[in-house]
Amino acid sequence: MAEAQNIPVGSNTTGSIAVAAESTVATRMSAAPSFDVADFPVPHGREEEWRFTPLERLRGLHDGTAEASGSLKAEVTAPDVVAVETVARDDARVGRAGKPVDRVAAQAFSSFEKATVVTVPKEAVLTEPVRVNLHGEGGVSYGHTVFELGAFAEAVIVIDHTGDNVRSANVEYVLGDGAKLTVVSVQDWDDTAVHCSQHNALVGRDARFKSVVITFGGDVVRLHPRVNYAGPGGEAELYGLYFTDSGQHQEHRLFVDHDSPNCRSNVAYKGALQGDDAHAVWIGDVLIRKAAEGTDTYELNRNLVLTDGARVDSVPNLEIETGEIVGAGHASATGRFDDEQLFYLMARGITEREARRLVVRGFFAELVQQIGLPDVEERLLAKIETELEATV
Question: Can you give the residue ranges of the SUF system FeS cluster assembly SufBD core domain (predicted)?
Answer without folding.
Answer: 136-363
